[in-house]
Every structure is written in structure tokens, then in C-alpha cells.
UniProtKB/TrEMBL annotation, chain A:
Recorded GO CC terms: plasma membrane
Family matches, as Gene3D superfamilies: MetI-like
Listed InterPro entries: ABC_transporter_permease, MetI-like, MetI-like_sf
Keywords for this protein: Cell membrane, Membrane, Transmembrane, Transmembrane helix, Transport
Pfam families registered for this protein in UniProt: BPD_transp_1
Record-given protein name: Sugar ABC transporter permease
First-listed, main subcellular location of the protein, grouped into a coarse class: membrane
From TrEMBL, chain B:
InterPro entries: MetI-like (IPR000515), MetI-like_sf (IPR035906)
Name of the protein described by the UniProt record: Carbohydrate ABC transporter permease
Entry annotated with the keyword Lipoprotein: no
Alphabetic keyword roster: Cell membrane, Membrane, Transmembrane, Transmembrane helix, Transport
Organism: Microvirga brassicacearum
């Protein structure tokens, strides 16, 4: 009886506390939620919404169903920037990861000048892409630029690296690999330091060579890092477009344009915001797919390691 | 044999490192020498600061510096306050809708403001904020990244410390301020360094929403200054480029370890 009364008042008190906790928590989250709703959730929904409408340059915007999407599928430039983006990802992601791994293996060892090497590899990470683009633009300047001067010195002829559709993607990819490899290096470095040294000793006792050890022990142990870095690099390859504004403006003839840069152009040069919204829906879908793969596949995998 | 392999690897590593520094060294060379030495690497070439002086005179870099400093300060201050409050709620409160709200926060990790330029431009323009520094900062103020990192840090705070503070009569805010914030110090530093680097360097969004000297950050100012159609000397452009990079680069050289560790912590999550 007494116990029952006790629990009744107690639960009333608890409910009151509970109510207060709820209010407190929601108030704490309020600023974040308002900002996220305004600049992330609403824009995502608005992007989707606007992609179903006509621009309404003359007269009000009208619902056009999937017209923008069928226009997109017929748009050669859209397919070209998408293809460019895939090429850009294929050119930069594996290369920067391989280089990052090489750098990390070197810097992890007792190599002469280790901290200098680490500094040299990591420095491009902290530089603004726009400054980097300025410097590399000059490297690639035809005739006068550093690369052509070097080629002239060894008796080869110069080339308009950024002006030729055949070389522009390679030229930009080299720059991006330079900018990113050192960033990925630090993740490998962290992972390498978690490999127990006795593993190496045991392998040495067994007479395993360094290459064998690297291939059969180190590389498999680094697999989660490799997956993590690959996905981040892949996402980056859809976000990195600053360099295009300075170096090529997506040219020549869209040969170096990427999806996000095309969105920027369509929205802020041609002011076709509904088509830009349609393109953004495509980009969001790609990014969400990559991120979900990461969530579902990668996070679980690492967990079970 | 072993010795040889080691030597070859050391040499290869050094060659790669020097190659990696080459663009930066070249930029400094060109910025510090008269224009006629821009591609003429004569070690006896006279050093000069004239390129910097001319860049400084030809474009309002002082204003751009001020804008960038205001921008990164505003973003960081906003992010830290917003993320601390949100992370505290998500880590230490049990309330209705917590998981849904956390999922809504995580959406921003997938779809960053960087790709929502079209609609965010509409929002900023509807708020009548175009061409202002808050316009650049606002989309980034609630950082899912920051909330996520701080939530993790707050979750690992031992309950005994919280209880002890409560016994001493601290309120929820008191506990947050006296227990959680001090214990999250390393997370704050890591997140702060990465955030400042990111926003110091950010370009596309500021380019879109700014249109005047009064609001342009350094990166956009540099792009406007260095545009090929302006016909400015290459040496002066490199001087401006050095000015844009210098503060972060110096900070990095001074606090290398913190930078590398911060980028790693924030990257790994």
C-alpha cells in the first residue's frame, strides 16, 4: 500500500522531470536544427521541388513534370561532365592513395630526414586550392611556363597543356593528386602505427622478406583504411572544382568541366536555376549513394574487425 | 644488399619530397625576385619585396584579410556554440525524437552545403543577406561534423564527474560549462584547426554570394586580382598568392604536430 503510494508520487515526479528533460534537450538542439533546416534540409527539398518546374522567365513558373530531367538526359554537356567526373575520380583516387601509402611507409620508418619528409608531403593539404591553382596555372602556361621551359631545356617542344582537350584532365589530375596525397598519408600513417612490431619480428624470424610482409600482412591490415580513404577521395572528386574557375573555366569545350562546376555555370552564368536544380538532384543522389555505401558497408566492416 | 635498398629508398623519398615542395618553393622564388627573374633561376638574383608592395597597392588586400579573419572567427564561434549545445543534448539527454534528430543532423555529413549552392543562394537572397560576411558563414554554422565529434567526446565523459558536479549544485548549464567543455578541449582544438583551415581556403560559395570588396574573402580577392584578363604581372600574382597562403602556412609550420593530428582525428571521426 505504502509502496504503491510512493511509486505513484515518484512516477509523477519522474514524468515531470522527464518533461523538463525533453524541453531542455530540444532547446539545446534548437539552434542547430533551425540552421540545418534552413541551409541543408530545406535546400535539399527545394532542389527536388524546383527540378519539376519551368524557369518562368516570361510569366510564372509552371509545373513541368519530368521535362527538366528528359532535357538533362538529352544534354550532351551533362553526359560529358559526368564522364569527366568519372575520369577525374579514376585518375586521382587510385593514384593519390597509392602515393599516400608509399609516403606513409617511408615516413613510418627510421628514414633520414623523416620529419622533413612528412612536412613536405603534408604541406599541400593546408594550402587554399585557389592559390595552388594559381601556381600550377603558371607551370602549365604554354611557352613561358615552367613545364615548357623544362621541356625546351631537354630538347622537347612545348605544349598547351590546359588548352588541349587531350591533356587538360591529366594536367588537372596531377595537380589534385599533389594536393591530396599528403592528406591521405596521415591516415595510413596512423594505421601503420597500430600494427604490432612483434608481428614484424615474427615474420623476420620466419625469413619473410619485406615485400612479402608488406603484401601479405601490412596491406590486408590496412584494408579498412584504404576503403575509408577511397570513399573520402571519391566524395572529394565530386566536390573539388575551385581550380576550374581559375585554370580552365571547364574548357576547352567542356573538356575539363565537372558536375558541380557545370551546376555553378548553369545557375550563375546562365541563371537557369531550375535546370541547375535538376543537375543538383543528380549530384545529391550520387553523393548520398556513396555515403550510404560507406555507412552500411564500411562502418559495419570496420566495426567487426 | 639491405643497406643498398635502404639507400635507394631514402633517395627516392627525398626526390619525391623535393618534387612535392617545388611548386611552393617556386612560388616563393617568383614572389621574392624582380619579374625578369621569374623563370631565370640565377642564385645571385637580387631579392625584393617590391612584388608584395605592388600587390598590396593594386588590390585591397588589407580589407580582404580583415574579411577572411572576420569570416573564420564568425564561423568558428558559431559552430562551437551551436555544436556544443546540440552535442550535449544528443550525448547526455534521453528525450523524445533523439534518434530522428541525430539522423537529421547526419544528413549534412552526406550532403554538404558546398553542393547546395543553388538553393542556398535563394535562401540567402530571401534573407536579404547577399554580399555580406554572414551570408558566407551561415550555411556552415551548424556543422554536423562538429556535433558528431563533440557528441563522441561528451559520451566518453565518466558519469562520476557529472554526478559530483550535480552534488555541488551545478545546473545543466553548469555541468556543461564546468565538466564537459573542459574535457572536450582536444576535440575543440582539432575541430577548430580544421574548421579555420577549411574556411580560410573555401572559395566557390564565397565567390557566389559576394560581389564587393567589403565582403570578399582573400581567396575570392586573389581570384579577382589574378584573373588573366587583368593582365597583372606574374611575379605580383605570386606575391598575392603567398600573402593568401602565408598565415595558415606559418601556423602549420609552427604547430605541425597539432595540425596533422587534428586533420587525422577529424578525418577519422
Amino acid at each position: 500500500m505504502v509502496a504503491a503510494v510512493m511509486s505513484a508520487t515518484e512516477s509523477r515526479g519522474l514524468r515531470r522531470r522527464n518533461w523538463l528533460t525533453n524541453v531542455n534537450a530540444w532547446l539545446l538542439l534548437l539552434p542547430a536544427i533551425v540552421l540545418l533546416a534552413t541551409f541543408t534540409h530545406y535546400p535539399i527539398l527545394a532542389t527536388l521541388y524546383h527540378s519539376f518546374f519551368s524557369l518562368g522567365r516570361s510569366g510564372p513558373a509552371a509545373f513541368v513534370g519530368l521535362d527538366n530531367y528528359s532535357y538533362m538526359l538529352d544534354d550532351d554537356v551533362f553526359w560529358q561532365v559526368l564522364r569527366n567526373n568519372v575520369i577525374f575520380a579514376l585518375a586521382t583516387v587510385p593514384t593519390s592513395i597509392a602515393l599516400a601509402l608509399l609516403m606513409a611507409v617511408w615516413v613510418d620508418k627510421k628514414i633520414a630526414g623523416r620529419s622533413f619528409l612528412r612536412l613536405a608531403f603534408f604541406t599541400p593539404t593546408v594550402l587554399p586550392m585557389i592559390a595552388v591553382a594559381n601556381i600550377w596555372l603558371f607551370f602549365y602556361t604554354p611557352g613561358y611556363g615552367l613545364l615548357d621551359q623544362f621541356l625546351k631545356m631537354i630538347g622537347l617542344s612545348g605544349h598547351n597543356w590546359l588548352g588541349d582537350p587531350a591533356t587538360v584532365m591529366t594536367a588537372l589530375s596531377v595537380m589534385v593528386v599533389w594536393k591530396e596525397a599528403g592528406f591521405f598519408m596521415i591516415f595510413y600513417l596512423a594505421a601503420l602505427q597500430t600494427i604490432p612490431p612483434d608481428l614484424k619480428e615474427a615474420a623476420a624470424v620466419e625469413g619473410a622478406g619485406r615485400w612479402y610482409f608488406f603484401r601479405r600482412i601490412t596491406l590486408p591490415l590496412l584494408m579498412p583504411t584504404t576503403l575509408f580513404v577511397s570513399i573520402n577521395a571519391l566524395i572529394n572528386s565530386f566536390k573539388l572544382v575551385d581550380q576550374l574557375v581559375i585554370m580552365t573555366k571547364g574548357g576547352p569545350n567542356n573538356a575539363s568541366s565537372l558536375l558541380l562546376y557545370y551546376i555553378y555555370e548553369v545557375a550563375f552564368t546562365f541563371w537557369d536555376t531550375t535546370y541547375a536544380a535538376t543537375l543538383t538532384v543528380t549530384l545529391i543522389t550520387i553523393l548520398a549513394a556513396v555515403a550510404l555505401t560507406k555507412f552500411i558497408y564500411l562502418d559495419r566492416r570496420i566495426h567487426y574487425q | 644488399m639491405r643497406q643498398n635498398g635502404y639507400l635507394i629508398e631514402t633517395i627516392a623519398a627525398w626526390i619525391l619530397a623535393l618534387l612535392w615542395l617545388l611548386p611552393l618553393v617556386y612560388c616563393l622564388w617568383s614572389a621574392l625576385h624582380p619579374a625578369e627573374y621569374a623563370t631565370n633561376f640565377d642564385l645571385t638574383a637580387p631579392l625584393t619585396l617590391e612584388n608584395f608592395a605592388r600587390a598590396w597597392r593594386q588590390a585591397p588586400f588589407a580589407r580582404y584579410y580583415l574579411n577572411t579573419v572576420m569570416l573564420v572567427t564568425l564561423v568558428l564561434a558559431g559552430q562551437i556554440v551551436v555544436a556544443t549545445l546540440a552535442a550535449y543534448a544528443l550525448a547526455r539527454f534521453r528525450f523524445v525524437g533523439r534518434d530522428v534528430l541525430f539522423a537529421l543532423v547526419l544528413v549534412q555529413l552526406m550532403i554538404m552545403p558546398d553542393v547546395l549552392i543553388v538553393e542556398n543562394y535563394r535562401v540567402i537572397s530571401a534573407l536579404n543577406l547577399l554580399d555580406t560576411i554572414p551570408a558566407i558563414a551561415l550555411p556552415y554554422m551548424a556543422s554536423a561534423f562538429g556535433i558528431f565529434l563533440l557528441r563522441q567526446a561528451f559520451k566518453s565523459v565518466p558519469n562520476e564527474l557529472v554526478d559530483a558536479a550535480r552534488v555541488e549544485g551545478a545546473s545543466s548549464f553548469g555541468v556543461l560549462w564546468r565538466v564537459f567543455v573542459p574535457l572536450g578541449k582536444t576535440t575543440y582544438i582539432a575541430f577548430g584547426l580544421v574548421s579555420v583551415s577549411y574556411h580560410w581556403n573555401n572559395f566557390l560559395w564565397p565567390l557566389i554570394v559576394t560581389n564587393s570588396v567589403e565582403s570578399r574573402p582573400l581567396t575570392v580577392g586573389l581570384a579577382v586580382f589574378g584573373a588573366p584578363e587583368t593582365g597583372v604581372d606574374w611575379s605580383i600574382i605570386t606575391a598575392a598568392t603567398v600573402m593568401t597562403m602565408a598565415p595558415l602556412l606559418l601556423a602549420f609550420l609552427l604547430f605541425q604536430r597539432q595540425f596533422v593530428q587534428s586533420f587525422m582525428r577529424v578525418g577519422i571521426r
